[in-house]
């Protein structure tokens, strides 16, 4: 239980058997937490291990834990067997994710400013409009988007995905950036402008330090969701603009051994998200909670 | 402690800051109002053009007979597509699948996430490492995770689950371990389990942040006053956590209801696992029935609006407290 810490003042004031019991409980809960962590990590751990096995060792029953390690799966991912390079889809994914993230920030920051520091009238209505677009299933707009893209020659074009991913992440970004901008002390802003500080000074000296963590969290979330997206990428891209998640599905074949290869590909494609998420765990929380948690 | 609602409002991170006196825009005249609105407009217009206009297109096409494989028969049919939808057992099945899938995944991962968050909200050796282990599932690309579950875990002949069963049975000298084909014997459970694995860390992170924003001085005071662990959870922790539970459930619902990757990869919508997004996808992408797919899309949107109305009401408390 969250509150059963052995070091609380109340516990220290009581007799020692209670303290010892609390400490034992604490240790048991610590072990339980470790066990849960391992259980949740296990499927990924298995994928990681399998990715370093040969195809023959990967598909055994019972599982071979001590099989020889090899980079064969990774070499296959980078095209050693088929000659298909993973770089075009990876670069497409990077382009779509980074470009849409930049566009999201460019659009969301001023919008959030107009919803917090100098709020427009009925700013809550605007907030709910943004959030409600997030609740509309993307699949409902898929067909018209497809038809428009087809008729304007935008099919199989990575910039179409950039636009769609921007619309996917913009509502989250507006909510997050607003919650960070709402922390900007308006009185200080006004005092600064009365004292003759120009807008650039105000932005750099007062606004930026408060908002920078928000920008980082927004960028992280926006990048992750864009990188992960499959439905639009599958329907709207073909050969040239195909992204990494679509590429990943191509490793599954109807015949032959492919488990180690798929695991290696899955690890490689998840790597950017894993690295970014591990490095910025607190930003991840801020982003996921739309900035409600700081 | 007798008024948990007050502690709940007072210590929420959002309440600490009140917007300063907001001068009424109307006093500044129309030019001031537009100057205020200007920064908002690009984002607003972008969202309307990219998300609302296509939906108008969907609405129009939903009243049309339009199959890409038979373009000559294109024309308006009124409500025919909708009539067909409501008599189609597949759509009804997709509807109930979506509800069951979403409710199961959100509730189970919320409960597991709460348990894990409570475990993580204490000091113990290696807490940071355990947190990293726990959030890994959420950071695996969804389609990669679906492939992992399908081929490396569920596969009947070489998946880890059946492999482990073989191994455990062999410990007892038996070579007749059960080897069920998980994806065909319990397809819904298989999809749900993989999604719960992915979404529990998400719930845990939000709830853990909620727990850590809880005022410790009040908890200490309650403990000094002799409150037990359960009382503290019931009357202090839980009321404080309620809004975080609501937020986590809402966001989880928004994402899980739209799930496509897991259904598409694990079962290809077979065996009663096709949810609404997958149904729309197949009608459009495989049957090329544009009119029918649009009608399905419109139905999905109407249902989403119903769900969203309830969901938004709970989120609105996040904003209301600020405008008080």
UniProtKB/TrEMBL annotation, chain A:
Domain (ABC transmembrane type-1): residue spans on this chain: 90-280
Q: Which Pfam families match?
A: BPD_transp_1
Q: Where is this region: Disordered?
A: 1-20
One GO term under biological process is: transmembrane transport
According to its UniProt record, where is this protein located?
Cell membrane
Indicate yes or no for the key word Ion transport.
no
Key words, A-Z: Cell membrane, Membrane, Transmembrane, Transmembrane helix, Transport
Record bears the keyword Glycoprotein: no
Q: Which CDD domains match?
A: TM_PBP2
Q: How does it sit in the membrane?
A: Multi-pass membrane protein
Query: SUPFAM superfamilies of this UniProt entry?
Result: MetI-like
UniProt cross-references to InterPro entries, sorted A to Z: BP-dep_ABC_trans_perm (IPR050901), MetI-like (IPR000515), MetI-like_sf (IPR035906)
GO CC, one annotated term: plasma membrane
Q: Which stretches are transmembrane?
A: 28-49, 94-115, 127-146, 158-181, 202-225, 231-251, 258-280
* UniProt similarity note: Belongs to the binding-protein-dependent transport system permease family.
Protein name (Swiss-Prot/TrEMBL): Carbohydrate ABC transporter membrane protein 2, CUT1 family
Q: Which organism is it from?
A: Actinacidiphila yanglinensis
TrEMBL record, chain B:
Membrane topology term reads: Multi-pass membrane protein
Q: Which CDD domains match?
A: TM_PBP2
**Cell location:** Cell membrane
What are the UniProt keywords, alphabetically? Cell membrane, Membrane, Transmembrane, Transmembrane helix, Transport
SUPFAM superfamilies for this protein: MetI-like
Per the UniProt record, which residue ranges are transmembrane?
Answer: 40-64, 99-120, 132-149, 193-211, 293-312
According to its UniProt entry, one GO biological process term is: transmembrane transport
GO CC annotation terms, alphabetical: plasma membrane
Q: Which superkingdom is the protein from?
A: Bacteria
The segment(s) forming the ABC transmembrane type-1 domain are 95-311
Q: Which family would the database say this protein is a member of?
A: Belongs to the binding-protein-dependent transport system permease family.
Query: What PANTHER family does the database record attribute to this sequence?
Result: BLR7065 PROTEIN (PTHR43005), INTEGRAL MEMBRANE SUGAR TRANSPORT PROTEIN (PTHR43005:SF2)
Can you say what this protein is called? Answer: Carbohydrate ABC transporter membrane protein 1, CUT1 family
């Amino acid at each position: 239980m969250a509150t059963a810490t052995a070091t609380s003042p109340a516990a220290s004031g009581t007799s020692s058997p209670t303290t010892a019991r609390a400490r034992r409980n604490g240790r048991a809960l610590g072990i339980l937490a470790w066990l849960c962590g391992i259980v949740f990590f296990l499927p990924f751990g298995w994928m990681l291990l399998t990715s370093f096995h040969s195809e023959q060792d990967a598909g055994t029953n019972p599982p071979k834990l001590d099989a020889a390690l090899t980079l064969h799966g990774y070499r296959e991912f980078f095209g050693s067997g088929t000659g298909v390079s993973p770089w075009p889809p990876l670069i497409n994914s990077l382009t779509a994710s980074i470009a849409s993230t930049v566009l999201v920030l460019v659009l969301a920051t001023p919008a959030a400013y107009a919803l917090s520091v100098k709020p427009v009238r009925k700013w809550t209505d605007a907030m709910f409009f943004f959030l409600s677009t997030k609740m509309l299933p993307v699949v409902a707009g898929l067909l018209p988007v497809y038809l428009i893209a087809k008729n304007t020659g935008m099919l199989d074009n990575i910039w179409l995905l950039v636009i769609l991913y921007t619309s996917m992440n913009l509502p989250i970004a507006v909510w997050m950036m607003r919650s960070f901008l709402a922390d900007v002390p308006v009185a200080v802003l006004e005092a600064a402008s009365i004292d003759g500080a120009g807008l650039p000074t105000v932005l750099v000296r007062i606004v930026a330090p408060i908002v920078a963590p928000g920008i980082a969290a927004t960028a992280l979330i926006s990048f992750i969701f864009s990188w992960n997206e499959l439905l639009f990428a599958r329907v709207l891209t073909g050969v040239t603009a195909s992204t990494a998640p679509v590429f990943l599905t191509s490793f599954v074949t109807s015949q032959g051994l492919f488990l180690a290869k798929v695991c290696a590909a899955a690890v490689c494609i998840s790597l950017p998200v894993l690295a970014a998420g591990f490095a910025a765990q607190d930003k991840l929380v801020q982003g996921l909670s739309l900035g409600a948690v700081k | 402690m007798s008024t948990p609602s007050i502690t709940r409002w007072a210590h929420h991170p959002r309440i600490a800051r009140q917007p300063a006196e907001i001068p009424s825009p109307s006093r500044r005249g129309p030019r001031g109002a537009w100057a205020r609105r200007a920064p908002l407009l690009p984002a607003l217009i972008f969202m309307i053009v990219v998300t609302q206009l296509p939906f108008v297109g969907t609405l129009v096409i939903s009243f049309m007979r339009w199959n890409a494989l038979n373009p000559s028969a294109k024309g308006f049919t009124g409500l025919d597509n909708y009539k067909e939808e409501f008599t189609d057992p597949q759509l009804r099945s997709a509807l109930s699948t979506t509800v069951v899938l979403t409710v199961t995944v959100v509730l189970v991962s919320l409960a597991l996430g709460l348990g894990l968050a409570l475990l993580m909200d204490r000091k113990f050796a290696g807490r940071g490492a355990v947190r990293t282990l726990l959030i890994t599932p959420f950071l695996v690309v969804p389609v990669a995770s679906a492939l992992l579950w399908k081929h490396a875990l569920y596969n009947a002949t070489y998946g880890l689950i059946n492999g482990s069963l073989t191994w455990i049975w062999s410990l007892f000298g038996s070579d007749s371990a059960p080897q069920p084909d998980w994806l065909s014997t319990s397809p819904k459970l298989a999809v749900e389990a993989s999604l719960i694995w992915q979404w529990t860390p998400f719930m845990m992170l939000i709830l853990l942040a909620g727990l850590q924003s809880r005022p410790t001085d009040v908890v200490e005071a309650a403990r000094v006053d002799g409150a037990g662990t359960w009382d503290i959870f019931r009357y202090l922790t839980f009321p404080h956590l309620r809004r975080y539970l609501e937020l986590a459930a809402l966001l989880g619902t928004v994402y899980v209801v739209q799930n496509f990757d897991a259904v598409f990869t694990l079962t290809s919508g077979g065996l009663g696992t096709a949810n609404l997004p997958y149904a729309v996808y197949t009608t459009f992408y495989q049957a090329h029935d544009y009119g029918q797919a649009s009608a399905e899309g419109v139905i999905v949107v109407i249902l989403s609006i119903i769900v969203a109305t309830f969901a938004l009401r709970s989120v609105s408390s996040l904003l209301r407290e600020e405008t008080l």
